[in-house]
Design brief:
CATH class of one domain: Mainly Beta
Structural class: alpha+beta
Largest sheet: 6 strands, antiparallel, barrel
Helix content: 25-40%
Shape: elongated
CATH architecture of one domain: Beta Barrel
Oligomer: single chain
Strand content: 35-45%
CATH topology of one domain: conserved putative lor/sdh protein from methanococcus maripaludis s2 fold
Distance between the termini: 109 Å
Length: 369
């Protein structure tokens, strides 16, 4: 009897141990994991509405402009040199200063010519007297017509010689051909100059010429009188010029047309030789709609945008026009007052719930590039 009870207790204890072992191996609910699942579920529900930025579309003015790189060249510029050879005896200008047309800038030795001129002038009085006397005698038939013509010829020859020497003396003088700024001199007093010797450079900087080239497709749209604006590197100012001339033909190698415009440069502050960024106005579109380029989603060769309507994103197909640095003209598909989504466009889907974080209005003017 005691053995039976003993084995029964052993069997019960063994079964209990086996049951505990099986229970310990079974999966049990984790309260921490369950709470984390609840938090993620709540956050997932919140993320269903995408946060976006949007704009309200209003009519505006867009200007279709062509961006061009050009250069500033002087109205006039010349390398100054003498017309004759000789030793330089005078330099009458200061480098980098303004000179006037006709101002004497430098001179080479003209003493031999001056002596020759004086000798001819001394002979002039005698030659004139001879003509006077011969004329009086001719009227009394005291001399022949031939004798009278001979002294007249001698006087005319003498006057011609005087003019020739005076012209040679003028060639020894270097004068400014126009108003301008004279540059650095390349010679000194006492040096020998010839017609190939550059004394200095003379530049007329008011007005300045704006030279640039445009593609042949724009050649017909740019005529004399066309207005343009340009900017300089390092300056925030905008300058205005007007086209005054075009090249007579299109360059067959580059297929471009060279054009020049005038900028007054009244203060002379801007120096020639600089590159300029030109904005050439082609056409102006008033009361047109435009949106930021990032709002457009290309799809299958077409353009579409998403509108914000009653808290949801709704796609609309548009027809785009000219483009600026940041904006695109919309010819069809939008109406004034529409709210266009401009951020997160790649994540948007039809009917997706969205929440506006920031909304802006577009009602200023932008130029096309």
């Amino acid at each position: 009897m005691k053995k039976r009870v003993k084995w029964s207790l052993i069997a019960i204890i063994g079964a209990g141990l086996i049951g505990w072992g099986v229970y310990s191996q079974m999966p049990h609910p984790n309260e921490e994991l369950a709470e984390a699942d609840k938090v993620m579920t709540r956050q997932s529900k919140k993320r269903k509405a995408l946060n976006i930025n949007a704009i309200i579309v209003h009519p505006r003015t867009l200007t279709d402009e062509v961006p061009i790189i050009g250069s500033l060249i002087p109205d006039e510029e010349v390398d100054l040199s003498f017309e004759t050879s000789g030793k330089i005896v005078e330099i009458n200008f200061k480098e980098g200063t303004t000179v006037k047309k006709g101002q004497l800038l430098a001179k080479v030795n003209d003493r031999p010519l001056q002596a020759q001129l004086q000798r001819l002038i001394a002979q002039l009085k005698l030659a004139e007297d001879r003509v006077f006397r011969q004329d009086a005698l001719l009227k009394r038939d005291a001399v022949s017509q031939e004798a009278y013509e001979q002294v007249k010829t001698e006087l005319a020859t003498l006057n011609a010689d005087i003019e020739s020497v005076e012209a040679q003396i003028e060639q020894t003088e270097l004068r400014a051909p126009f108003d301008g700024i004279i540059g650095l001199r390349q010679v000194s007093v006492g040096s020998y100059a010839s017609p190939t010797t550059v004394v200095a450079k003379l530049t007329k900087t008011s007005p300045l010429k704006v030279e640039f080239s445009v593609s042949e497709r724009y050649a017909a749209t740019i005529q004399k009188g066309t207005n343009l604006t340009f900017t300089l590197e390092g300056s925030l100012n905008t300058y205005h010029a007007q086209v005054y001339a075009r090249e007579s033909s299109i360059d067959p190698n580059t297929h471009t047309l060279t054009i020049r415009a005038l900028y007054p440069n009244e203060t002379g502050f801007i120096m020639p030789g600089r590159y300029v960024s030109i904005s050439l106005k082609k056409q102006e579109y008033e009361n047109t709609l435009a949106i930021p380029s990032e709002a457009i989603v290309p799809e299958m060769g077409k353009d579409k945008v998403y509108l914000y309507r009653s808290g949801k994103a709704e796609p609309v197909e548009i027809v785009a026009g000219i483009r600026t640095d940041a904006l695109v003209q919309v010819k069809q598909g939008l109406s004034a007052g529409d709210t266009v989504i401009v951020s997160g466009t790649q994540q948007l889907r039809t009917g997706m719930e969205v929440t506006i974080d920031n909304i802006i209005s577009t009602d200023h003017t932008q130029s096309a590039q």
